Fold:
Amino acid sequence: MAKKSKEARNQVILECTEHKDSGMPGTSRYITTKNKKNTPDRLEIKKYNPILRKMTIHKEIK
Structure:
């Protein structure tokens, strides 16, 4: 009987926080993975927003 492997890494979506306030159409989103055991809270990473053409903070959405 085979053991079930428990996946430690989850796929998460990061969305730009400044883009909503700018009033420009579209969204800036990135897909990445995170280890849910090491980082149980939501991620916040600085990523490039091609619509605003600058580095902005992207937060994990559910």
Summary: The two ends are 35 Å apart (CA to CA).
